[in-house]
Amino acid sequence: MTRGRSHRAALVAAIMITACGGDGPTNPQPVPTPQPGIHTVAGAGVDDTVLSQPLQALIVEVRGTDGQLARGVRVRFDARPPADSARPLERAVYVCTLSSPACGPTLVPNGVGNDSQFASDTTDANGRAKALVRLGTVAGPARVAVSVPELGLIDSASFTVRAGAAATVRFATRDTMLYVGATAALGPAVRDRFGNPRNDAITVTPDGSGVVDADAKGVVTGRQAGRARILAQAGAAKDSAFVSVVPRGRLVAWAAYDGSGTMVLVDIDGSHLKRLTTNPSGNGAFPVWSPISDKILFHTGTPTVDLVDSAGAQRKTVGPSPSWFPQFLPDESGMLYVAPGTGGTSAWRARLDGSQPVELATLTGFQGYPYGGASFSPAGDRVAYTNSSAITIVDLTTGRAVRDLPFGDAPRWSPAGDRVAFTTGFDGGIGVVNADGTGRRTLTTTDAYSPGVSWSPDGQWLIARRSTYPSGLTLVRASDGLTIPLHLSLDLYQPAWR
User: Is 197 left (phi over 0), alpha (psi -120 to 50) or beta?
Assistant: First the structure.
């Protein structure tokens, strides 16, 4: 062999070795075996705003248990409910057939819409089925269930719905109560036109009353008793919330429409509500606290005077039938009440168990049962009661009427015994007059109140049920008539405050 021929042979051999990889023989890669089931081909995983309409249809491929394409089988597309369980009747996603002229709700009057939650299609020669999808009105995850009943197959396609453009700002809590120094989160949030929250910046501003402070997140802190308005603003959108800052106290009151006259305990800020007794009266109860313990006296529908403690225990009848409008003596050694006497209706004193009753004075012209006709002074030495033309005060040590006050109903003594509060009629305004008859003032002129006014322990506030809309217990400041509505879960009457 010549030198040139040998060189060419070597070159050919090198090229062949290079073409083969130079590392010996290579095994071919295996072709994946088609898997049975439902396989999403296109249209899933869309992340867009409410009511967006993807251009791409949802396309799935179906393979049978042998992994072969399933042709001519029926495929169901079912839109699932929103993940937000508080909005079960709204739509997270809409699904329609490809032939639908529109998919989703009707957005304009007389427009075309298709509020469809179900569509079906038959797989084609490629084992594929299709449906139109439109994102719904509830922001969050959305899902379309895909099933082939004939083959027992089920799967799903997922989507993400984002909130639309900002439309409103709303407080989560629009009216609340709190004590001085306490806080409450009002939860302002920007929302789209379907109520989905957004993360836009919000300006929170309290009014200039000094009743509350408010931070940028809508957390308010009570500073002084009163009623405050809070404004939240995001762009052009605005909303208001209201906060009542109230003095501390515990109430016992009659719930006329709860169990045919239940008596309840509740804090003035609405917390610690407790039903104390059932069916005490269908005609009012006018409960009163003991000045030194947690005992409560009230009259029943019989009517008799009953005694109970704040735990609801030891209830017993301690007054004769009939008897009304009880009150404890200052040292809790006995009680005072109104009942029939020798000359008509009289004021009586007895031990707290009802024994040793003593008739003290006749209440000439007494009127008012069952709605607040009499009230004993804190010292137990006087009684104020409603007669046909005035509020009469009787000295219980002498039995003589000492003063007629200007006309009013349902009198209630102040804690110091120097003033009497009243209503100016069965459903009237609230007035206050000094015990000597001077200084009569009407504190409320635009709202009517049910009989049964009570004083705060410090004598600065009155509380009564406003009967004009919106009805409910309302605080009235004795100095200037400032009113603060209380938002309680029950409609309460005849409160007593401690």
Answer: beta
Long-range CB contacts for residues 296-300, cutoff 8 Å, separation at least 24: 296/252, 296/263, 296/496, 297/326, 297/327, 297/328, 297/335, 298/254, 298/263, 298/326, 299/323, 299/324, 299/325, 299/326, 299/337, 299/370
Domain ranges of the chain: 37-162, 168-246, 250-497
What pLDDT, in 10s, does the model give residues 216-247? 999 999 999 999 999 999 999 999 999 999 99
Pairing of strands 128-135, 93-96: antiparallel
Q: Do domains 37-162 and 168-246 have the same CATH topology?
A: yes
**C-alpha distances out from residue 51 to 89, 92, 161, 162, 493, Å:** 16, 9, 8, 10, 50
Kindly report the number of other CB atoms within 10 A of residue 404's CB atom.
13
Q: Which residues contact 445 (CB under 8 A, 6 or more apart)?
A: 429
Helix (H, G, I), strand (E, B) or coil at 4: helix
Amino acid occupying residue 162:
R
Q: How far apart are the first and last CA of the chain?
A: 126
φ, ψ at 108 (rounded to 5°): -130, 155
Phi, psi values for residue 16, rounded to 5°: -65, -40
% the chain with pLDDT above 70: 92
**What is the CATH topology of the domain spanning 37-162?**
Immunoglobulin-like (2.60.40)
- pTM score of the predicted model: 0.74
Per the CB < 8 A criterion, the answer to whether 18 and 12 are in contact is: no
* Fold observed for domain 168-246: Immunoglobulin-like (2.60.40)
The pair phi, psi for residue 85, each rounded to 5°, is -65, -15
Q: What is the pLDDT of residues 1-26, one digit of tens each?
A: 344 444 444 444 443 444 444 444 55
